[in-house]
UniProtKB/TrEMBL annotation:
Gene Ontology terms: biological process: porphyrin-containing compound biosynthetic process
Protein name: Uroporphyrinogen decarboxylase (URO-D) domain-containing protein
GO terms, molecular function: uroporphyrinogen decarboxylase activity
Domain (Uroporphyrinogen decarboxylase (URO-D)) ranges: 83-326
Organism: Cupriavidus yeoncheonensis
Listed transmembrane segments: none
InterPro entries reported for this sequence: Methanogen_methyltrans, UROD/MetE-like_sf, Uroporphyrinogen_deCOase
Pfam families found in the cross-reference section: URO-D (PF01208)
Length: 334
């Protein structure tokens, strides 16, 4: 089979056809440096040029969506490079009223799409780029931290009013990302978990607004990915979202890839345990996980990826082992 470029490989995978090899996409944070648009652009380009992944998940700091409303954030040394909220905006129920409309072309929101535009210009369309977008309920949790759960149950109208504003801002950000050169979005929800909310609660405060966003960009993207973060995710509730790709911690929580295939018709993204195997497993363990992911899916409609962002300590040797294993899986299938 002739070697494909990134787009042909992805497009064949989306159609459910065998490509020249199973596609690979890995992503990581660049802590502290990611707060500067120029540095984020440079590091993103270096990352993609070094590894030639088949899909580039753009990696803004995970707190960009709350800073323009006044939240204070910091990098506190998390292994995955993520920032934390040190001073939330919503401390009392009445603070939800502070969530007023903002312009996503400005401030922290605007900086992310400026960096994406610079990255896209340099890559010249050679690789699919997805901008990272957080669900409105995920943003609400970062604005209020754990207070969100009490207010959902005791003051739902206050939360709904804030979610209306957040949703509209998020839609504007998505449309700006597409104009900046994104080929789709990586839509991350961190609350679609049975450990955090009931199904009815997520349907009202989560899915309702999620689908508004996905509907607003319908027909304007070449591929969108849904990421469900955490344990005991509401996979069945999410499996009808209008996205082409679905990513979750398949090595750490149900369902595995084989069972997920029964519910989601699109491309599954996963197969790797980034917390253990990529850090401590060695080449043999990494090869086994890639081969097992291919076995579970028949090698179709699969992109090899992590359950979430890579630890910043992930070695070059581990990343190379993933790429080598993907080539090996293709050779064995042939």
């Amino acid at each position: 089979m002739n070697t494909m470029n990134h787009w042909r490989r992805l497009e064949a995978t989306l159609r459910g056809e065998f490509a020249d090899r199973v596609p690979v996409a890995l992503w990581r944070h660049f802590p502290v440096d990611d707060m500067d648009a120029g540095k984020l652009t440079r590091l993103t380009l270096e990352w993609q040029q070094k590894w030639q992944f088949d899909l580039l998940k753009f990696m803004p700091p995970g707190t960009y969506g709350v800073e323009d409303w006044g939240a204070k954030t910091a990098y506190a040394g998390a292994a995955n490079g993520a920032r934390i909220v040190t001073e939330p905006v919503v401390r009392r129920t009445e603070d939800w009223e502070r969530i007023r409309p903002i312009d996503p072309r400005l401030g922290a929101y605007g900086q992310q799409n400026f960096a994406l535009a610079q990255t896209a210009r340099n890559l010249g369309g050679a690789v699919p780029i997805l901008q990272t977008v957080f669900s409105p309920l995920t943003t609400a949790r970062k604005l209020a931290t754990e207070r969100l759960f009490a207010d959902i149950r005791c003051h739902p109208e206050a939360v709904d009013a804030a979610l209306r504003v957040i949703t509209d801002v998020t839609i504007g950000f998505c449309l700006e990302a597409i104009r900046a050169g994104a080929h789709g979005i990586f839509f991350a929800t961190q609350l679609a978990s049975h450990r955090l909310l009931t199904t009815a609660e997520y349907e009202r405060f989560g899915k309702k607004y999620d689908l508004e966003i996905l509907d607003a960009i319908r027909g304007q993207c070449r591929a969108n990915m849904l990421h469900a973060h955490g344990d005991d995710i509401m996979f069945n509730l999410l499996s009808d979202y209008p996205v082409e790709l679905f990513n979750w911690h398949d090595r750490l929580t149900d369902p595995d890839l084989r069972r997920a295939r029964r519910h989601f018709p699109g491309v599954l993204v996963g197969g790797l345990n980034e917390h253990h195997t990529l850090l401590h497993g060695g080449r043999g363990a990494i090869t086994h996980e890639v081969q097992d992911a291919c076995a579970q899916t028949g090698g179709r409609k699969l992109i090899i990826g992590p359950g979430c962002v890579l630890p910043v300590a992930t070695s070059d040797a581990s990343i190379q082992a993933v790429l080598d294993a993907a080539q090996l899986a293709e050779a064995q299938a042939a």
